Amino acid sequence: MSSRAPTRTARPAYRCSECGWETGKWVGRCGECQAWGSVAEAAAAPTGRTAAAPVSRPAVPIGQVSVSESGFRSSGVAELDRVLGGGLVPGAVILLAGEPGVGKSTLLLEVAAQTARHRRRTLYVTGEESASQVRLRADRTSAIQDELYLAAETDLGAVLTHIEEVRPELLVVDSVQTIGAADTDGVPGGVTQVKEVAAALVRMAKTRNITTVIVGHVTKDGSIAGPRVLEHLVDVVLHFEGERDSRFRMVRAMKNRFGPIDEVGCFDLSAEGIVAVTDPTGLFIETQHVSVPGTCVAVTLEGRRPLLAEVQALVAPMTAERPRRTTSGVDGSRLAMILAVLQRGARMGLHGRDVFVSTVGGAKLVDPASDLAIAVALASATCGRPTPHGVVAMGEIGLAGELRRVRGLEARLAEAARLGFSLAVVPPAEPGQPTGPRERTVDGLKVYECHDLASAISLLRLTGSQA
Hints:
Blueprint: E1 14-16, E2 22-23, E3 39-41, H1 78-84, E4 93-98, H2 104-117, E5 122-126, H3 131-141, E6 148-152, H4 156-166, E7 170-174, H5 191-208, E8 211-216, H6 229-233, E9 236-242, E10 248-256, E11 264-270, E12 273-276, E13 295-302, E14 305-317, E15 325-328, H7 332-345, E16 353-359, H8 371-383, E17 391-393, E18 396-397, E19 403-404, H9 409-418, E20 423-426, E21 438-442, E22 445-449, H10 453-459
Parallel strand pairs: 4-8, 4-9, 5-6, 5-7, 7-8, 13-17, 15-16, 17-20, 20-22
Antiparallel strand pairs: 1-2, 1-3, 9-10, 10-11, 11-12, 13-14, 14-16, 18-19, 21-22
Helix pairs in contact: 7-8
């Protein structure tokens, strides 16, 4: 009788073609992305050992590697250069993702035209539109250049042939989800296809030293569609953000091997094209000759760039059984916390009032440093007295009503002083200072440091309640 143990057969793996989720048995609905009918049996991984192969170039000491070929080249768009850390790097692969209609194609067509204007050959490959459609946009945005080549292709092999024939210095692919490889299973946009297309474009970019920009789609929650490995393959990941009812757009770096990831670029999108906005503060501040109650200016940080945004608040008698809490551009849960602190720490009766808080110009206040400006606007609306002219407020509010320090305080104060504000209410710069407000001056801006919310509101004379 043989004592040999039976050989265990490997269980087949099933993989979702949309997101790459794997499971040991077939299911009708993906457990990760919740897509129906996307789970299929995955091909078995090939077994065997990889033999040694010839090298493309011998290894050398790192000090002998030349960096002259990897210097920054301006894209022609100053705000994009700011986000990239200086410009485009030869051989770099950049992934630009954003929601449909946000302006990705318009921005990249402008970058391609600016690059071609400096006599650097550029190839723009479109898989979502026809060549005539892109030409119409180029006519509208004045992007016609002799060194800008255009190709409408959805096959990876054809795209690689265009690259061999044109030999561009800049390649734009719009988008990676529309390009398919004929010798790879799956449909264009699926996990397997996206991985193969991206890997082929990365290999071409590195071997030919071509700066490559790839457009990527996003899912409903704002994340980049396709496998996570796509973000690992590329050198730079940029997110293009903006509201549909606003012309303001922002490019934010999520990954950058050649520069910082805490920079943002600001743009203005219109029918004539996209224009860089070097000073976007004026878009979020409403200039008024007469002060009105319920307004205050906050100073937020987008990356390392300070931006000023105006907060407006309205406090009205309750018109239903429960008070209304309506926000636009402000987090609702954050507003609820600020209302509770005002109720408890500043003795403001807001539990029986309808409260409406909004921002000017579609700005989104996610920085905790905007807490104090929201509270000041609410206090002004409650007592019916406007905040003093030329006031900015910044500071995070704790549950006990204390004001906590914020990052980049000096940069925020310098920006407020540059724009002509005269008074700033901020948290104390260092712990252990006297409890009363401390005054100092920064570039002609009077700065009052307050330890808690009650002292800040008292300093601005916004105590009391409107009759």
